[in-house]
């Protein structure tokens, strides 16, 4: 867990310190999962091939651009809660539940991998939601709801490409 940004001021926003730190831990995991999925999606954008190249290249670009914006929102929420946001590859690797890409997957494997990644981010957000809701942290609940909605939508869009 990161320590408060200034070390000597208490953050008092109506959320008990232990609850606030628990929320920050969950947001840090969400940030790591989101950043890992962003990197994977961008990687696939660069390296996709095959008959669906144009469709996937553009879809992946749309998704990684939105994901890039979301990592900033998550990190800023962590800062608003008075903690430092993780930001190194080592920190993200230790926190993420999204496995790195192995080898050079084909387009269908990329899609399946991204569906799994989208679902992972949704599960991470959903796991934190109850904690944030319990302590009336509405800004975090709002952020989590928006992230779940977007990642569920992307998972649906990607799954539709795998249908016959």
TrEMBL record:
GO terms assigned for molecular function: ferric iron binding; oxidoreductase activity, acting on metal ions
Domain Ferritin/DPS: 25-164
Pfam families linked to this entry: Ferritin
Gene3D superfamilies for this protein: 1.20.1260.10
CDD domains for the chain: DPS
SUPFAM superfamilies cross-referenced by the UniProt entry: Ferritin-like (SSF47240)
Ranges that cross the membrane: none
Database matches in InterPro entries: DPS_DNA-bd, DPS_DNA-bd_CS, Ferritin-like, Ferritin-like_SF, Ferritin_DPS_dom
Family note: Belongs to the Dps family.
UniProt protein name: DNA starvation/stationary phase protection protein
